[in-house]
Amino acid sequence: MALVLCLIGLLLAGSASATSSLAGSWRDVREGDTPAKLLAEYRDGELQRFDPNLLFRLPKGPLGTWVVLDPGTSPAQEQQVLSIYPPPLGMVTLYDQNGHNVSLTVDDFGQGPHGHGRLAFVLGRDVPVTAPLLLKFEPSARIAAPVSFRLQDWNHYLGDDAHWLVFASSSLAVMLAMALMALCFGLILRDLTFVWYAAYLVCYAAIQGIQTGFVYHPMGMDWLAGLSITVGSAAVALSVAFASLFMTRFCELQRFAPLLRIPVLSLAVGMVAVVLMRCSQIPSLEGIGQLLVNPLLTLGAALLLLASVIAAVRGSRHAWFFLAGWTPLLVLTAMTSAQVNGALPALPWLNDAGLAAGAFEAIVLSFGLADRALLIRRDRDQVRVLADRDSLTQLLNRRAWHEAAIVAMSDLGGRPQALLFLDLDHFKKLNDKRGHAAGDEALAAVAEALRQELRPGDLLGRYGGEEFVALIDGANAEEALLVATRMCRRVHRLEIPVDGNQLALTVSIGVAIRRATDSIDSLVARADQAMYDAKMAGRNRACLQRRPEEPNVPRRMAG
């Protein structure tokens, strides 16, 4: 928010510098017109007057429009600059008192200074500062946007120009930086929501760059010269298409507004079709595409707003982010459209406010995307936990324990390791006598008892059925047997009845100490064999895995 306020401050600061007050007149271009004839008609009061200091939509004559600007009396003796804001997309020609003329377009790459965010004519020092200025606006295929005029001395012009460059560069940099960040998140998380958002921001930045002339000056993209209408129309249509695809996923329309999901996706398809028609080079299709653009834009904006409101009301967390970022831009677009039709002439800054609104929207929606990324990560972590944990005992399941044990064994660092293989005694009889529910309760209780006998860094898992495994780092044979003995005693103290008589649930544990040649599978196999030795020795005890040359008797038992 602070960044956006700063951008708006720069915009307002740039519009506050001193300018000369102008008077203006206009009329349509007619066959046989000459500059001298127009100036004579102006002196005779035959032209229609307007206020050039406010936004004014020049009537669109078939041959163009003449404009005469009168600076009146001015004490300034410095070099003057006449600027036209916002820059019209068609050609504008300035005629001076000596019969010379200078023609400019927003995508002009000729020699001499160029206005940034406007057309700028540098007046020669030999031009009287009180002489009327004659301009000719050539006809354009685009809808004529309202323009205002300024006459400034060179220093004030440079100050305004620097302010605008900082403002526009900052706004576009914010949008493109947020787009790059979203694209990176999309690639990392493999989520198309971020990709659609990045594409939308790039298209919106392209729209603003073309409308303000930023892509021409200062960026110098001369390959776009003459393509502003085609590229600009395509960028507008694609921005709506990508915005539709983005909000469908971001606001979770499938869940919160399912009836509007298909219309929103249809809007995206329709805007892509418009782009294809506009770029088809077939006159009939280009005309249809041009006719469809504005109605689809109007309906699309209303549809996206309606869908996001419904989704937000029904509980979509991210729909509120979308509304916070999208609504100001939508209001500004409506005001700009009204301005094109002659309303709000005293608010010329609305044109550049689109840059600030785009930066604001990029920041707000990026916060929403960051929140979405955190939720995705949390959900994936939860899924991973569920995938790694046994649902009954909350211990590592066999696969997860096996993977963790491999990692632990690969980072031994010369320390001893012991593996305990545990099997509950008489568990099948408990299930048969008391039922599976009692068996599940017994497994959960035993798992908790075993966990309390181990350190947080030891790996304890359910191997399957009534079998458990534990990998203890830094334990030699004696220490491992002590741990196993405590486990036997703790399980026995649970006093879980097996058949309702004197028989209680116990555990038999096999202990194996890792050898240099052991893999996790061979270590488990040796511990499993030691567990069977404990079973054969009478159950409810721990037994160390014997060496191959030793007789088949337990090394250590704990009753």
From TrEMBL:
Instruction: Give the reaction(s) catalysed.
Output: 2 GTP = 3',3'-c-di-GMP + 2 diphosphate
**Which co-factors does it depend on?**
Mg(2+)
Q: What is its EC number?
A: 2.7.7.65
What residue stretches are annotated with the GGDEF domain?
415-547
- Broad EC category: transferase
A single Gene Ontology biological process assigned to it is: negative regulation of bacterial-type flagellum-dependent cell motility
Q: Report whether Transmembrane shows up as a keyword of the record.
A: yes
Please indicate which superkingdom the organism of origin belongs to: Bacteria
InterPro entries recorded: 7TMR_DISM_rcpt_extracell_dom1 (IPR011623), Diguanylate_Cyclase (IPR050469), GGDEF_dom (IPR000160), Nucleotide_cyclase (IPR029787), Rev_trsase/Diguanyl_cyclase (IPR043128)
Give the signal peptide, or none. 1-18
List the PANTHER family hit by this protein, alphabetically: DIGUANYLATE CYCLASE DGCM-RELATED (PTHR45138:SF9), REGULATORY COMPONENTS OF SENSORY TRANSDUCTION SYSTEM (PTHR45138)
Q: Where are the transmembrane segments?
A: 164-188, 195-217, 223-247, 259-276, 296-313, 320-341, 353-370
Q: Please report the organism this UniProt entry assigns to the protein.
A: Dyella thiooxydans
The answer to whether the entry has keyword Transmembrane is yes
Q: Which key words tag this protein in UniProt?
A: Membrane, Signal, Transmembrane, Transmembrane helix
Molecular function GO terms recorded: diguanylate cyclase activity
Query: What protein name applies here?
Result: diguanylate cyclase
Taxonomic classification:
Bacteria, Pseudomonadati, Pseudomonadota, Gammaproteobacteria, Lysobacterales
Which NCBIfam families does the UniProt entry name for this protein? GGDEF
